[in-house]
Structure formats: structure tokens, C-alpha cells
Write a structure and sequence with these properties.
Elements (H helix, E strand, L loop, with lengths): L1 H4 L3 H4 L4 E6 L4 H10 L7 H9 L2 E3 L4 H6 L2 E3 L7 E9 L2 E6 L2 E10 L2 E6 L12 H6 L9 H6 L4 H6 L7 E6 L1 H4 L4 H7 L3 H9 L2 E3 L14 E2 L4 E7 L2 E6 L2 E12 L2 E6 L10 H7 L4 H6 L5 H8 L5 E6 L1 H5 L3 H9 L1 H10 L1 E2 L14 E3 L5 E7 L2 E6 L2 E12 L2 E6 L10 H6 L5 H8 L2 H8 L6 E6 L1 H5 L3 H9 L1 H9 L2 E3 L11 E5 L5 E7 L2 E6 L2 E12 L2 E6 L10 H6 L5 H6 L4 H8 L5 E3 L4 H5 L3 H9 L3 H6 L1 E3 L1
Parallel strand pairs: 1-7, 8-14, 15-21, 22-28
Antiparallel strand pairs: 1-2, 3-4, 4-5, 5-6, 6-7, 8-9, 10-11, 11-12, 12-13, 13-14, 15-16, 17-18, 18-19, 19-20, 20-21, 22-23, 24-25, 25-26, 26-27, 27-28, 29-30
Helix pairs in contact: 16-17
Amino acid sequence: MLIRVHNLTHYFERPGITVFVPVSSVYERFLDDAYKYGYNTSDPTTMKNMLLYHIGDGMTSASEMEKFESTRTLHPDHRRVFFNNFNYGDTKVFTVNGAWVIGSDILASNGVVHVIDRFLIPIQSNKTVAEYLERPDLPRYAFQSIKNASIIDPALKMATNSTSSSFTVFAPNDSFITVMPSYGQDILFNDTNLLKTVFWAHVIQNGLLYIPRIGEIPNTAAMAGILKFDRIGTEIYVTSNKVRARIIQSNIPVKNGVIHVIDDLLFYVYRNMKQKMDVLENVNFVKANLYNVENEIRERFINASKNMTFFLPTDDALAKLPEDRQSQLDTNITKLSKFFRDHLVVYTQRDLDTFQDGETFTTADGELLTMRKVHNNVYVEGGGVRAKLTIPNLGCTNGVIHLVNSVLFQRDFTIWEAILGNSQLSQMRDIVNRNADLLRTLHSTSNGPMTAFLISDAAVSHLNHDAQMYLKTNTALLLQAIRGSIANGVILSSTQISDEQDVPTLSGRTITLYNTNQGLYVIGSKIRANVVIEDIWCSNGILHIVDNIVHLPTRNIIDEMSVHPTLSVVSGLMGAFPKLQSELKDVSTHYTMFVPSDDAFTYMPTHRAKILSETQGLLQSVCTITSQ
């Protein structure tokens, strides 16, 4: 469509070209990104240049992407696109300017087509790294701090202004650098060697590293130190010398390299533990209560002569505790001080990579911690609670902080008490409270351990009105479904669930548990529920919060398709057929529907997709809908 609108068909008919085609579902994101990057999509010349940047001059197969660093495009200034490849499980992922190639080597009569997961913007700048840091093309960014620091190494500054070498630069935006307190600036800018090392830590010389949406990004040597990468959801972080920064804008191609914008200065450790906690997110409970603990504990977090390891529970970890237990920590200085000591090792500083499976440490309170390595993750155990190190290696001048997702030594409450005291489970609390037998079961510590998968209030609120009314008027069915979500006689934490595992439940039905790279989920009676909060450790078992009710259908076909990301094409097309959509929402009729996934449409020529969307009745035939 864009090609025809802007009269560019003849460019795409040229012989011997490579076309990088974004999937149609990312068009809205393209408009948002174009606005963010300062492109005027209503300007024909701008749109022409952006689209021509998606045509490579010459044929480049996926195997050739592995051999060559870049290729020239038909952009009027012959701007280039750049190739990387990464591992994603057992699969090799190819990228173009960081865009994932989701369909490769589709042969056409005049060239080759690769399907990518986003538009290739921003377009390669005609500026060098040095020029771009001085005058960035994109709005909202300024890099004067790192530009000024570059005077510490005139030779490197000159090299980044030349096209004889390529560079990858992680550039802190000025708005983050300027908040560095004076005690950090005084040390850094009065130590020439330190300043040079910090500058080098942000630069990869003779290498182009684009950041992919998915896939494993390998550890990479910078001019000083090693850069390590990790992901949390859609966010990507880079770490150097125990300083971690979020990549707030990736993949800005320039004439002699690529620039990634980050939100902190790498390599340079200048905060003690208290100062580090002050700037961390999602640790407000610990941050606020550090002022309320015994003086001896507070002094340890400030004292620069110490060398400690602190396993810091996040606010989400505290939220797993019943509200009365949280209140006790807030109001009882003895319990609060013990909480801090239970997570603090005062005699050693240990990074993530140095932990050995089964290794033990003694806390400041004399308790024993044991390290565990499971599924390529590192956990710490204390008092029967296993907590995952979710964000490790936050360097401080007096040690290292590891953020963890559970509170150690805190499981002196039953599953029922966990439900009762969790603000996200009020719907489950009200239902269980009306059934004395189920309440006694969840509150008992003598019937053997249990593992429960219970739906959150947020997930219930997202059910359509009919489903919510159905649940309210069919309490017996709902209680039976809840019983079918509770495995009796076994504790199954996130680390104890295998790849695929069948377990019996209190209702006699079986549920199947899955542990994948994308997370945990459970299926019961063909209904899937994803685990959204894992591992609430209790005295009589473990509780997981999920996003659906197993065994009991709560969505019609249209709603079910809308929550599956791999069915977005058909789900979107349904809006064009209100009669068909209305029929499939009708729960009085039962259907069997075979739905093509998004991948099935990826390779479909545009003219066929147009016929499909415009021909009445054809979509219904393609989806093979039969009533029962």
C-alpha cells in the first residue's frame, strides 16, 4: 500500500535487489516511531527516502548476511543497512539494523525478500560518531558530557570522526549524567586515568553491535572492560564493572558505526549501598525503612570500609507477604532490623558469576544462606524460601547488591493467610471464604503440602461482562475449577516444575504445567493460564498467581483470539466482518475454528492478502469455522 501511494513501484521492480519488508502489524508502531524520531510522514520526500532505505542494491541472502557487515541501499544518499546474527535458543537470528529477520530468502523474479519485525528507522545518519555526539539528528537527546570527556583521548576522538574504523558507542544522555552528585564528579574529573578508562568502557572499536528485540546478546569487549547484556520484559540493559544502564534508544546507525543511548554512566562505581538504593526503582520499602533500623545496621550500608553482599528484596517481593506481615516489619524495629540482617552478608562481596551451586554463607544475623543454580538462573535460599536474583551485580563502593524476588525466612503463613492478606486476590478470598471445606484445606498444615494456581483480581476484571456474570451465578462450577487449580501433596515452585509435567488436583482433574523460556503456564481442560506472580512461599505449600481460570471457559472465540499474540492478523481482520464477529461472540452456539497463525500470513503476497480482506465469505472459508 505505501509503495503504491508514493509511486515507488518501479523501484521494487528493478532487477537484482534485496527488499526488507516489515510485517503489516507494525505499521502503527512505525507512525509512532517516525514521530518520535522527528520524521514527517506526510512529506512525500521523507516517506520516499524511508521506503527506499528498505531496498538493498544487489541480492543478499541470509547466509551472506553472516559474511558481510552491511549493504548499500537505494536511498538517494546510498545509506547502508547493517547485519548481525544472534542465538535464540537453538535458532540463529539474523538482524538488519537490529530488526529481526522473521522470514528470509523469499525468492522473487527480480531479487530476494526478507520479512522483518519493524521498519528500518532511524535511517543511517550521514554523520560520524564524533559528529553525531556533538549534533544528534534525533530530538530529545544531547551528549555534550561524553563529547567533552572525549578530549581525554584525542586519538580516539579523531578515530571516531573517521570512516577508516567502525565503532559501537553506548552514550549516556546528558539528562542522566548531569544528576551525578558532586562526590561522584569530584573523583571522576580529577583522575585523568579513571576518566579515560570510563570513556573507553562505552566504546567498542572495530565492531558493529546492533541490539535485537530477541536473542542472546553475547558478552562483548569494550576498549575497557566487558559489556554484558540482559533483558527484563521488553527492556534491555548493559552492564560494565557492576554498573548497569538501561538502553533507552538502541540502534542509531551513523556513518562509521552505531550509537545506543543509555541512562547511566558505565564502569564508574561511586555510590555506597545506601546511595545506590536511593536511586533504584521498585525498592521503596527498603529505601524508606533504612532510616528506621538500628544504628549499627544503617552504618554498615554507609561505611565505605565494608565489603558486603546484600540480597535486596524488591517491593514486588514484599508484596507477596500478607499485609499484616508487611505491617509488622513497618512498625516493629526488632523485626525490621532482623529483616535487613537476614539478607546481608557482611564479610564478603560476591558477584553473580562467582556463586557455586550449594555454596553457603552466614548472614549478619547468623542465619544460613545457600546458593542454587537452576535453569541457567541463580537463586538464594534462606529459611525454606528460594529467591531468584532478578537484577544482580549492582556495584557499590562497599560491596554489591543483588535484587531478589522473594523475602527470605518469611513463610510462617498458610496459603489461606496468603490469599487473605494479598490485595490482588480479593475475588478468590471472597469465594473461598464462602466455602468452609476449601478454606480449612488451604489453612491446614496437616494435610500435606499444596501448590495453588489462583486467578488475580486484575485478570477477573478483564473478563467480559457475560463471563463475570456467569462466574457469579455458577459458584459451584467456579469452586470446582478452583479445586482443579490446586495440586495436593506436592510443592512445585518455579524451579521445581519441569518442561512439561502432569499433576492431579483436589478436584480429581489433572493439570499440565509448563516451564518455558517465555515463563510458566498451566493448562487444565484445554484452558491456559499464565503465571504472572510466581513462588509465594507458605507454611503449607506454595501459591502462584495466574491470569485465567483453568477448566472453566471464560472467553468466547473472539476474546480468546485477542489474547494470543500469534493470532493478531485474524483477530484484527475480524473487525472488518461484524456479522461473523457477532456470531463468534455468541456463546449459545459452539464452534470449532482452525485459525491460521500470523506466520501463515507472513509469506502471503500482498495482492492475495488484499483479496482475502475484501472478499466476503473468504475469510470464513480460510479459517474453517464449523458449528457444533
